[in-house]
Amino acid sequence: MSLFARDPSAERIPVSVLTGFLGSGKTTVLNRLLRDPALADTAVIVNEFGEVGLDHLMMEAIDGELVVMASGCICCTIRSDLESTLRDLLGRAREGEIPPFARVVVETTGLADPAPIAQMLLNNPLVVGFFRLDAVLATVDTVHGARQLDAQPESVKQAAMADRLILTKTDLAEPAVVGALHRRLAALNPTAARIEAVMGAVSAGQLFDAGWYDPATKSPDVARWLRDEALSDDGHGHGHHHHDVNRHDGGIAAFALSFDAPLDWDQVNLWLAGLRHAYGEQLLRVKGILSLRGEDLPVAIHGVHHVFHPPVRLPGWPDGDRRSRIVFIARELDAATVRGHFDEVAAEMTAGAV
């Protein structure tokens, strides 16, 4: 008979929280990871900010359960919703309604404060008997990371709380920029492993099975954030409330534009170029699926601030809705202004064709 007690955490399902600021490549990293056979028994929970979610449409179909949670500010809804979602997944797996799973990955919105999630996973009595927080993983955009750490408190919290920092888009940044970001992240979170993802690819073995999440290894701020979350929780998963679920602190708002008829790519390209020129600093994230004239397949667009990636032709429509849909997450910018620019470009092109 062993003199040592058996570690009860070994029987609990590990939960990894994948966070990172808007446009930092979380979905790309997760898509690549889910191709790894080692993650075949993974349940994925996605949370999105804004009235229309597109990230789950960008994700490739996987075997298992994909849960897209309700729209809204994650710091207001995630603790309550995540608790019920985890328990529901576990119950459905035990009843044979879904395949059994040995791991959970929670992909948060880019505006997420990870402290409420970690607090719930560490201390919620209805969860900790079955699940354990394995690791907080944070993607950091090498191109825009320094700017976001300066301007966005969410990005600082995400990096400070992480066990693993995944540096993305290193191929797009100068070596000096990459080195400076490494040094800044090392000062912010010296105990976190920093991993460079090449085209979004990173080994599952570098990220998962961290053992358990230990706030004591982080900066004193992390312990304070978790303590504040515990004190602010009113018993319903809410320490505060936002009146508009599509707005966030600092004047950040999410909105979506949709177009019933197929679009002309030249017009879309001019429109987006004009938006980047006029509002590049305010464009925190632009992501969409387009139906274009002369194209049978949908085309995906993706941009952050002034940098937009080349459009990508998708292998097929992810759902039955074949309209063009573009989600904007921006600061001090509204849907009417963005749509007005689109109409101006359309009018100019029509006049030029006459």
Report on this structure:
It contains ten helices and 14 strands. The protein starts with 12 loop residues before the first strand and ends with a helix. The chain is 34% helix and 22% strand. The chain has two domains: 12-232, 3-Layer(aba) Sandwich (Rossmann fold); 247-353, CobW-like, C-terminal domain (Hypothetical Protein Yjia, Chain: A,domain 2, 2-Layer Sandwich), CATH 3.30.1220. It has 354 residues and is of the alpha/beta class. The protein has helices at 26-33, 55-58, 74-94, 114-123, 145-151, 153-161, 175-188, 220-232, 265-279, 335-353, and strands at residues 13-20, 42-46, 66-68, 103-107, 131-141, 164-168, 193-196, 247-248, 252-259, 283-290, 299-304, 307-308, 312-313, 324-331. Strand 2 (42-46), helix 2 (55-58) and strand 3 (66-68) form a beta-alpha-beta unit. The strands form two sheets. Strands 3-2-4-1-5-6-7 form a seven-stranded parallel β-sheet, sandwiched between helices. Helix 3 (74-94) crosses helix 4, helix 4 packs across helix 8 and helix 5 (145-151) crosses helix 6 (153-161).
